[in-house]
Specification:
By secondary structure, the chain is mostly helical. The chain has two domains: 211 residues, Rossmann fold; 87 residues, Tyrosyl-Transfer RNA Synthetase (Orthogonal Bundle), CATH 1.10.240.10. Helix content is 53%, strand content 7%. It has 13 helices and five strands. Strands 1-2-3 form a three-stranded parallel sheet. Helix 4 runs parallel beside helix 13. Bound molecules: adenosine-5'-tetraphosphate (AQP). The site of adenosine-5'-tetraphosphate has 20 residues, from helix 1.
Length: 333
């Protein structure tokens, strides 16, 4: 029987953090044995905001290296850079034409990124169009490869919903063409919150670097960030919804050390935040150290070769799907 297909990607923007790892990459590593896996560095998504070209090139390679250092095995999974397969942009154009503007303006990520919550009626005028319609590029990324499952963090749920909507809409109008994918989310890693604000997700485009632990943070920085991480009122170490900051920190501790939250609670009975935070910093460092050693050993040239081979492997699949789409809508192929 043919293996099912998974597709996912991360934009090379900002610093990749433990939220990206726990919500997405860790999950990919586990799934790659079971599924035909395609992982992309989505550089076309990164340019929805202004980027320094030199920095973008550096980050694109860095993200691919992070995938590999995290355990994505290029022998098992296909890795490539999105802009190396132009079919993504071409399919996006076609899908634009069947998408309603209302569907995009309801996206919470759009509202957040465009900072529309300020109530300034002029705010919209200066929002780059890419911030508005990048979800359609995500839809194209996923649908090009007959993806069955999309492993992502919870913040991407709306984007997977619109993927399903557009796949069904196209299939209804033009006949069966796209596989309608399902989302794959792990319960614990689904949403790691910001260290400086537990009501918002940890985010690589956060204004303050105290929002996240980046995968390339030094020991000293990790200790500093955890020390500064906001906590809740009271002094007990408990995993409860009414203590969102602590719950988030315990989640990180639990996921990185593979210790159940209950066990962590028991360990800190009678102890305070200082003990807990010191140990949490060590748990994070113990995870980051071997990861960073593996990352440092990766050769740029070799990784670029892996990415080029990956693009060569998936491009014919993308072209086949795009040609089918073009034929269905009446283009001469
Ligand atoms: N906090 C999080 N918890 C769990 N999963 C998360 N993901 C992102 N943040 C968390 C998952 O990581 C993958 C890549 O998402 P992304 O590229 O959108 O990363 P981001 O950190 O969320 O980036 P931003 O802040 O939106 O900045 P830009 O737009 O500049 O890249 C996804 O699977 C996501 O669910």
């Amino acid at each position: 029987m043919q293996k099912k297909i998974i597709f996912s990607g991360i934009a090379p923007s900002g610093n990749i953090h433990i939220g990206n790892y726990l919500g997405a990459i860790k999950n990919w590593v586990n799934l790659q044995n079971e599924y035909n896996s395609i992982f992309c560095v989505v550089d076309m998504h990164a340019i929805t905001m202004p980027r320094d070209p030199k920095e973008l090139r550096k980050k694109t390679l860095e993200v691919a290296k992070i995938y590999i250092a995290s355990g994505i095995d290029p022998e098992k999974s296909t890795l490539f850079i999105q802009s190396h397969v132009p079919e993504h942009a071409e399919l996006m154009w076609i899908l634009n034409t069947i998408t309603k503007t209302g569907e995009l303006s309801r996206m919470t990520q759009f509202k957040d990124k465009a900072e529309l919550s300020t109530g300034d009626s002029k705010a919209l005028e200066n929002v780059p169009l890419g911030i508005f319609n990048y979800p359609i590029l995500m839809v194209a990324d996923i649908l090009l490869y007959d993806t069955n499952l999309v492993p992502v963090g919870e913040d991407q749920l709306q984007h997977i919903e619109i993927t399903k909507t557009l796949a069904k809409r196209f299939n209804n109008r033009f006949g069966d063409t796209f596989v309608v994918p399902e989302v794959h989310i792990t319960k614990e890693g689904m949403r790691i919150m910001g260290l400086d604000d537990p009501t918002k997700k940890m985010s690589k485009s956060a204004k303050s670097e105290y929002n996240y632990i980046a995968l390339n943070d030094s020991e000293e920085i990790v200790r500093k960030k955890i020390k500064k991480a906001v906590t809740d009122s009271g002094s007990e170490i408990v995993y409860r919804d009414d203590k969102p900051a602590l719950k988030n920190l315990i989640n990180i501790y639990s996921l990185l050390s593979e210790t159940p939250a209950k066990e962590i609670e028991n360990k800190y009975v009678g102890k305070g935040y200082a003990d807990f935070k010191n140990d949490l910093a060590e748990v994070i460092i113990n995870f980051l150290k071997p990861f960073q050693e593996r990352l440092a050993k990766l050769d740029d040239k070799k990784v670029l070769e892996i990415l080029a081979e990956g693009a060569e492997k998936v491009q014919p699949l993308a072209k086949k799907k795009l040609d089918e789409v073009k034929r269905k809508i009446g283009f001469i192929v």
